[in-house]
Amino acid sequence: MTVLPIAAFLFLSPVPVQTPAPPPPAIEYSDAYQTRAKIHKIGSFAMLPLAATEFYLGQSIYTTPSDSKKGAHVAVGAAIGGLFAVNTVTGVWNLYESRNDPNGRTKRWIHALLMMTADAGFVATASITPESERRLRLTGDTNTNRALHRNLALGSLAVGTVGYLIMLIGR
């Protein structure tokens, strides 16, 4: 007989109703954000053939230097520098606009920090050319400058590639 009153008590006792938490406020991005994102993505895809060409030219100059290869290497390097400048401006601007969006924040910041590190590395690479008298020379030895220039370029390319892949994977 005691089971029935306990069962009745369980069904008749008030159960506190949990109200769901309000949804987070919607994050709205401007049309300019979308335009900058599109420019940034196109620039990112354009970087792939430029980086491959620059690597090929740099390696070719490293093994068999010629003036025509050096000129092409400088031209492609300038194009990469310009493209990195455009992507840095569009990326940082969109990073600022997305500052209130918690979705993907860590990934955006890691990408941004890696890409800015690659930016600094490419600036250092451009400033340490093996034979240019107009630029900073760390040593009087051209071979040491060549190796340093190459290592900085490859290191910057590696850091930039990791930053690129972070945004590409897991979209």
N- to C-terminal distance = 62 Å
Q: Percent helix among the residues?
A: over 70%
What sequence of helices (H) and strands (E) makes up the elements? Answer: HHHHH
Number of strands: 0
State the domain count. Answer: 1
Rg is: 27 Å
Task: Provide a count of the helices.
Answer: 5
Main β sheet profile: none
Mean pLDDT: 85
The proportion of residues in beta strands is: under 5%
Shape: elongated
Alpha-beta content class: mainly alpha
Low-confidence stretches: 133-137
Please give the oligomerization state of what you see: single chain
Short overview:
With 171 residues, this protein is mostly helical. The chain has helices at 3-12, 31-63, 67-97, 105-127, 142-168.
What would your notes on this structure say?
The protein has one domain. It is 73% helix and 0% strand. It is built from five helices and no strands. 18% of the residues are buried.
Q: Which key terms come to mind for this protein?
A:
single chain; mainly alpha; 5 helices; 171 residues
Please outline the helices and strands.
Layout lengths: L2 H10 L18 H33 L3 H31 L7 H23 L14 H27 L3
Helix pairs in contact: 2-3, 2-5, 3-4, 4-5
